[in-house]
Write a structure and sequence with these properties.
The chain has three helices and 26 strands. The chain is mostly beta strands and 325 residues long. The protein starts with a strand and ends in an 11-residue tail after the last helix. The relative contact order is 0.09.
């Protein structure tokens, strides 16, 4: 099945939501949806598996919305983080090519959390895409097993089983300020750019906030990526552990001068020093010096690199290999 979406009415549909609604629940063949040039302001929910979404280009095909955590709902409660998404993927075998997903709610200090993409599923691939936002731009579900604050997980997956998904991000641009890549998935980022936005604070950005569950072999692996930003020197961290067993590994990554010499922050969770796994190999650039890295940060050795190849991290029992697509 092939579907074309265009705001100028030259396709079968003018909105992504209407196109998805047209797919029968019983349809099992692969589906390709071409999203032509335009700005699509709608909160998109994807629940049908096996769909490839193709945009005209990263900058010309934009899915966007503007919800944020501090907005009040009709029942008098705040919306909270996990109902702010511009796009929710709640299924498996989804591919995004050449498009942008954005949340335009505003900077974190004013708008609080505002998710652009909520990705919760297995075998999810994102190639040559942009994810634009501020605080909590990209959520790589699932949620952690338990919330810390009451009602902290209110949203579409609050009571759903926590299933580890595999995500592959290639040649993507991801921007934000606080914790703008966060979650529990096994996610491999290759040749991606992580852009930290200046919010004029002593700490302007934490790029990652992994919540890898205890016993899960992998969390985030970032290979040949670039950490860039508009922030002053030494004002951003590479990451901090949202949960105590967080895992983030950087291999051959370039880091700008905006990265703190310490590189990583423990979020005040000293117990996580013994349980999380943060590691670097062959870090490059002004923010890469290892002299002031904390002693709980590992330095990988060359002989350990095969453990963090795409194949080792993502192939699983089914031999998934999205890099061959």
């Amino acid at each position: 099945m092939v579907i074309h979406i265009s705001p100028d009415k030259t396709g079968q549909f003018t909105t992504i939501t209407d196109a998805l609604a047209s797919i029968p629940d019983t349809y099992t063949d692969k589906i390709t949806i071409y999203i032509h040039k335009g700005v699509y302001k709608e909160q998109v929910v994807i629940t049908h598996p096996g769909i490839t979404f193709i945009g005209d280009s990263q900058k010309d095909t934009v899915l966007t919305y503007d919800l944020s955590a501090n907005m009040m709902m009709d029942d008098g409660m705040k919306r909270g983080t996990f109902r702010t998404y511009s796009c929710l993927i709640d299924t498996h075998d989804i591919t995004f090519l050449n498009l942008t997903v954005a949340n335009t709610a505003g900077p974190g200090p004013a708008a609080a959390q505002a998710i652009a993409l909520y990705a919760d599923g297995d075998r999810l691939m994102f190639d040559s895409c942009r994810f634009l936002g501020n605080q909590d731009t990209l959520f790589t579900g699932p949620l952690p097993p338990k919330e810390i604050e009451p009602n902290g997980f209110i949203g579409p997956k609050q009571f759903a089983p926590r299933i580890n998904g595999r995500h592959y991000y290639r040649n993507c641009y991801i921007e934000g300020d606080v914790d703008f890549v966060f979650g529990s998935a096994t996610a491999y980022f290759e040749q991606c750019e992580f852009f930290s936005k200046n919010i004029h604070q002593t700490v302007n950005s934490y790029v990652t906030a992994a919540s890898t569950p205890q016993g899960q072999p992998y969390g985030y692996v970032m290979k040949d990526c670039r950490f860039t930003g508009s922030c002053p020197p030494a004002s951003c961290y590479l990451g901090r552990p949202w949960r105590e067993y967080a895992k983030t590994v950087l291999i051959d990554c370039h880091m700008g001068e905006h990265i703190f010499p310490e590189g990583w922050h423990d979020w005040g969770k000293t117990q996580a020093h013994d349980t999380c796994f943060y590691a670097e190999y062959n870090s490059l650039g002004p923010g890469s010096a290892q002299d002031f890295r904390p002693d709980w940060i590992r330095r990988l050795k060359r002989e350990q690199l095969p453990l963090y190849s795409r194949e080792a991290v993502l192939s699983g029992d089914d031999g998934w290999s999205p890099w061959n697509m």
